[in-house]
Every structure is written in structure tokens, then in C-alpha cells.
Specification:
Number of helices: 11
Helix content: 25-40%
Number of strands: 15
Distance between the termini: 36 Å
Order of helices and strands: HHEEHEHEHEHEHEHHHEEEEHEEEE
Largest sheet: 7 strands, mixed
Radius of gyration: 22 Å
Length: about 350
């Protein structure tokens, strides 16, 4: 798609959509006046589906975002390409995407990259993708780092509804010459320091206070094991209540992702759980034990009635229905699908 089309789409979105986007989400920014003229490289954490649009609203020129277009829904993928995003393979190295990044930079386009590689589920930072600092230095562009706070709590990835609160963005700018005098490791450390966070845990110290209704709806996308009875695939949410459909334990949840037990004391919980980050960390720690017996029907991490499909361009082709389970220990674990006449 031609550059003029991207610029026209960006200009239209920035003039018609950005003002209401920033107002509705109560977004404020500092340092935006220091953003350099294009081309530049923008890096930030990725905790909200609107991150690219919010950050782009403060730029005086279009930003070409590297994005997982292949894994997006067809409509979302088409819209992403319309505004200038370009594809990369998710959770894997992608030489074609890196080549495309250098081509765009040479043509004068600003580049936007979320170096953690994916949107956060629990509000905490992941490790940087390998080579983030090296890429920033080799591009030879000014580096803009966006430190965001409140973007996760505004609408967690798992949540069905957004919340009301404050979303802050601080822009930090490093010149290309300045980066050129640094090592790759030092640039990695600077990027990591700027974008790293644990928003659920940091919320009180940062003065982030969110409100909302129906904040537990969608919680089953994040939580899947009960800390009282231990049953997997048992957690659901309705309104502001989280519950276990196996043992009946209930918790209240607020818009800041803090939980409080309602009918079972913390003394009988498997771990000290004050918020969703604690709960999620405890789940992850129990994965090896659960995976050990997951290949047996009725045990461990095994889901029945799962539909496996394959994306073919804009179309989706159904492969079959069957069981999905995690098998094997540690780094050797595999996510296995088994259905009539098919195994993947």
C-alpha cells in the first residue's frame, strides 16, 4: 500500500479519533514536545490494545508499527495494514520483518516496535526480544522510549470491559549519535529500564486508582486454577465476583485487580493472594506438576471439545474438534491437540 494512503489514513484518524480516544481514556503525556522529526524509532511496553493509537496521537507524523498481523482477526488485520502496520511472525525471529524495518527507515518512515513481542496478560513486563538494543543502534535513528502507566489497568487484556482511571505516558528521547556511542547491552538495559513495570503491584505507589463495574467478566481468560481446591479450568467471573465452579469459593475483585476472599479464609488458600498478579504467578508455578499428568483423560491440564483451525489468508479452515493438553516437563513441554484422525 502506498505511502500517501498511509499518511491520509493516519491524518484522518489523528484528527477525528485521537481527541476522543485521549479524552475517554484520560491520557496525559509529558515530553511529547521533544519528539524528533521523522524518521525515528519508537519503543514501548504493550499492555493495551489501543497502545499504538494512543502513542501515535502524540506524533506529528505517521508511525509504521511492526505488528503480528498474521495472528489478528481478518478485519483487524485489514485495518492495521490500512494505517501502515507491517507484519512479523509472533514469538519467533523474522528476518523478512527486520529487512522491512530497515527499508522503511531508509525511506524516511518512523518505526514503532513493542520489544516485549506481545501484549501483557498480567500487567508485568516480559523480557525484551533478543537484539532489541542492537536493532535500535543499527537503524541509526533517534530512539523514543514511551514509559506508560495505567494502560494495562485501563483495560486488561483478559477483561470484557474497560475501567476508568488515569493513563500516563512519559516520552524519553535519545539521539542517534548518542546511541552510536553505546554498546548493544547498554541500549538493551536503557530500553528495559524505561518500559519495565508490574502495574498491578505498582498501582498504589504510582497513585493509580481505577473504578468500574463488571470488572471480573472475562477473568477465565487469565485465571484457570482454584487456590483452594486446586482444580484447573474452574474459574469464572460475573459482575465484580470471581468464583470457583468446583468448590464454590468466591472472591471480590476491584478495578485495580485486587482480590479479597468472601467465603474461605486465606489460611486455607494454597498461596498468599492479594491480587491477580499473585494468583497468576501461583498458577504458573504449578504448571510442571499439572503437566505431568495432563496426557491422561480427566487429569491435569486437559480441555475437551477444542476446535483447531488454520488461517489461510483471510479465510479460516477448520481442522477438527478434539482434546488439548500440555504434555512434558519444563522446556520440553508441548501443547498437544488430539482429534479423530488428527494430532498436532
Amino acid at each position: 500500500m502506498s505511502a500517501w494512503y498511509h499518511r491520509a489514513s493516519w491524518t484522518l484518524l489523528r484528527s477525528l479519533y485521537s481527541p476522543s480516544l485521549l479524552r475517554v481514556n484520560n491520557v496525559t503525556a509529558s515530553g511529547a514536545e521533544y519528539l524528533p522529526a521523522p524518521p525515528f524509532l519508537l519503543m514501548s511496553d504493550h499492555s493495551n490494545a489501543l497502545d499504538a493509537y494512543v502513542l501515535g496521537s502524540f506524533s506529528r507524523s505517521p508511525i509504521r508499527y511492526m505488528a503480528n498481523i498474521e495472528g489478528a482477526a481478518p478485519l483487524a488485520a485489514s485495518f492495521a495494514e490500512l494505517i501502515g502496520a507491517y507484519g512479523r511472525r509472533k514469538a519467533a525471529s523474522d528476518a523478512a520483518a527486520i529487512r522491512r524495518t530497515f527499508e522503511l527507515a531508509r525511506s524516511g518512515d518512523s518505526i514503532g516496535i513493542f520489544p516485549e513481542g506481545d501484549r501483557s496478560w498480567d500487567g508485568s513486563s516480559a523480557n525484551l526480544a533478543r537484539g532489541a538494543g542492537k536493532l535500535a543502534r543499527r537503524l541509526g535513528l533517534p530512539l523514543v522510549l514511551a514509559r506508560q502507566r495505567g494502560n494495562y489497568l485501563s483495560h486488561p487484556r483478559w477483561a470484557s470491559r474497560p475501567r476508568s482511571g488515569s493513563w500516563r505516558v512519559d516520552f524519553l528521547v535519545y539521539g542517534a549519535d548518542e546511541l552510536g556511542r553505546m554498546s548493544d547491552a547498554l541500549v538493551d538495559a536503557i530500553i528495559s529500564s524505561a518500559i519495565s513495570k508490574d502495574e498491578i503491584k505498582d498501582a498504589r505507589g504510582l497513585g493509580l486508582g481505577f473504578t468500574g463495574e463488571g470488572v471480573a467478566e472475562g477473568i477465565g481468560r487469565l485465571l484457570w486454577r482454584c487456590p483452594v481446591c486446586g482444580k484447573p479450568d474452574s474459574i469464572g467471573g460475573r459482575g465484580n465476583l470471581v468464583s470457583c465452579k468446583s468448590c464454590g469459593t468466591r472472591w471480590s475483585l476491584d478495578a485495580n485487580c485486587r482480590v479479597a476472599p468472601l467465603n474461605a479464609p486465606l489460611s486455607i488458600h494454597a498461596a498468599e493472594i492479594a491480587d491477580l498478579k499473585d494468583w497468576h504467578d501461583w498458577q504458573v508455578a504449578t504448571l510442571p506438576d499439572l503437566a505431568a499428568g495432563a496426557s491422561r483423560p480427566g487429569s491435569g491440564l486437559r480441555s475437551e471439545g477444542v476446535v483447531l483451525s488454520r488461517r489461510e489468508g483471510a479465510a479460516t479452515r477448520r481442522i477438527g474438534r478434539g482434546s488439548l493438553y500440555l504434555s512434558g516437563p519444563g522446556d520440553d513441554a508441548e501443547l498437544v491437540f488430539e482429534g479423530p484422525g488428527s494430532r498436532a
